[in-house]
């Protein structure tokens, strides 16, 4: 679809919304500007897109590349300057989402079934977190209260695709202090999940690692075969993951 066609569709949709509001007596129609319908076009959504990119794991780096900015700081300024509180707001939203996820983990009792060197610490922190989020016998569901709890008593547990980081700066191999930089998986490039003592594994994390092993096996089974050097590297990677999974199960 061309940009012009997209712009036409945006304005057709806006007109439909206003007709719908008129016919149903609603008062939340799109307001006119200087007595005329506001004309939408795709360029107006660049910052909206930047906002959503920035909220994804590693989003500020991806956004800087996508928008061809010279630095991450320029992208952050584009998505919302530091004075506007953009970074703080993104980090607050990430913390809230993480808190909601941790409550789901607690509700399903997944924290009692974790494996890995930090599994016991994760269970202890989440049990304390559960106590802090209880109000008159029920777990808090209000976003504002959960946000306050995360600001005051963040358990510093960061769920990811491959690992759950139970952060302890004294043990962290990533050499990054807790500054809202943890976004899961090691979703930042300095994460060393196969060696770090801050790692705990949920069932989903273990399944993700097994999926990695399957991908390696598929590559090794390719015909014609891969070059010997690449085969050796893949075999080494597969062995590393298998040893890692075996070790984490022994520690659980």
Automatic annotation (TrEMBL):
<protein>
    <recommendedName>
        <fullName>Integrase</fullName>
    </recommendedName>
</protein>
